[in-house]
Each structure stands twice: as C-alpha cells, then as structure tokens.
Amino acid sequence: MSWWLLLLAGLFEIVWAVGLKYTEGFTRPWPTLITVIAMVLSMGMLGIAVKTLPVGTAYAVWTGVGAVGTVLLGIVLLGEPAAVGRLICVALILAGILGLKLLSPS
Predict the structure, then answer these.
(1) Is residue 49 helix, strand or coil?
(2) Which of 10-19, 70-79, 95-104 has the lowest mean pLDDT?
C-alpha cells in the first residue's frame, strides 16, 4: 500500500511541478489553486508512505517519479527539447527508481 501511495504522491508532484508553469508566478487563480492542492496531496501522501518505507528510498523515488514525469510532460505540453541526451538521463533516473523498488526491504 505504501508503494502505491508513494507513486500517487509522485504523480501529484508532477501535477504541481507542471502547474507552476501555468500559474504564471501565482497570478492565475485556478492554476494556482490546483497547484497548491496538488502540493498538499503530494506531501501528505509522501508523509504517510514514509511511515513504513525508508525515508531515503521514499524521497528518492518521490523526486524521481516527479522528475521523470515533469520532464516528459515538459516535452509533450511545453515544447521542451527531447534531445537524446536528456532522454538517456531520464531513463537512468527511471532505472534508479526501479532499482530502489526492487532492492527495498519493504
């Protein structure tokens, strides 16, 4: 259950990270509200997940999921570059996330 909460927390991290772009410096009310709600949900779920998962593993997976998803949505939604080097680095982060999951004692 903790791993599913952690994954969901990472997905909400993606929402708030991408949402920051749409808030335009927190000047647009609806994108700001969605971003803040996603921040609270993300942190709350991370907090619950670390009750049973090692904090270092949980934090690394949370930030990794957020980083991978944010980069990919940046490419798809915001026209950010999809250079081969960037995609290789994203793949390495994903490999690290999977490695932490597979080698985790919980």
Answers:
(1) helix
(2) 95-104
Q: Could you tell me if 43 and 17 are in contact, meaning their C-beta atoms sit under 8 angstroms apart? A: no
How many helices, marked H, and strands, marked E, lie in the chain? Answer: 4, 0
* CB burial string 56-77: b at 16+ within 10 A, e below: ebbebbbebbbbbbbbbbbbee
**pLDDT tens column, 26-59:** 999 999 999 999 999 999 999 999 999 999 999 9
Half-sphere exposure of 92 (CA within 13 A, CB side): 6
Distance CA 70, CA 20 (A): 11
- Residues 14 and 66 sit within 8 Å (Cβ to Cβ): yes
End-to-end Cα, the chain, rounded Å: 10
